[in-house]
Backbone:
């Protein structure tokens, strides 16, 4: 056993994206935990999507590259 979390299936990843997208529109205020540990407040610039069949990700304003959806937290609830 390596201590790594189990990989999520494509269906689980898509379900996570669908849940996020249903609750939050593009432009939603979020916080993201960056690679260096800093937490930054920003807004989404895309819908959440499955990338490469292995990660649920989202693109964020002012942040280079996309980030794993598990590292993103919505700052306020929005109506679907």
Residues:
């Amino acid at each position: 056993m390596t201590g790594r979390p189990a990989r999520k299936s494509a269906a689980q990843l898509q379900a996570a994206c669908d849940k996020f997208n249903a609750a939050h529109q593009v432009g939603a205020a979020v916080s993201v935990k960056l690679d260096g540990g800093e937490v930054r407040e920003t807004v989404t610039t895309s819908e959440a999507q499955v990338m490469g069949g292995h990660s649920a990700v989202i693109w964020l304003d002012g942040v280079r590259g996309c980030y794993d959806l598990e590292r993103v937290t919505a700052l306020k609830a929005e109506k679907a």
